[in-house]
Amino acid sequence: MNALIMASAAASTTGLDSHTWALIIGGGIFLAFMLLLLVTVSYTNVGLRHEIKPDDFDEHRQFKSHPEHH
């Protein structure tokens, strides 16, 4: 892995060293995960807006909700 980083640093014409690229890529990944976390928390808040209602008993149901495997 270090050889790959050194090779990319040698081929780089921007003048940024491998440590700077690692921080940029790691920061991008971190921001992507934080965005996914924000979306997850938003949907959790939407789900908690309504109170949970119990299912009505269905007397015409033919099968159990969780059938046993043979």
Highlighted features:
57% helix, mainly alpha, 70 residues
Helical coverage, percent range: 55-70%
Strand content: under 5%
Q: Report mean pLDDT, rounded to a whole number.
A: 79
Number-wise, the strands total 0
**SS field, number of helical segments:** 2
Task: Describe the global form.
Answer: elongated
Q: C-alpha Rg, in Å? A: 26 Å
Low-confidence stretches: none
Find the structural class using helix and strand composition: mainly alpha
Q: Would you list the SSEs in sequence order as H and E?
A: HH
- The N- to C-terminal Cα distance equals 51 Å
Biggest beta sheet attributes: none
Could you explain the architecture of this structure?
- With 70 residues, the chain is an all-alpha fold.
- It has helices at residues 2-11, 18-47.
- The longest helix is centred in the middle third of the chain and has 30 residues, at 18-47.
- The mean pLDDT is 79.
Quick description:
By secondary structure, the chain is mostly helical. Helices cover 57% and strands 0% of the residues.
Q: Secondary structure elements and their pairing?
A:
Elements: H1 2-11, H2 18-47
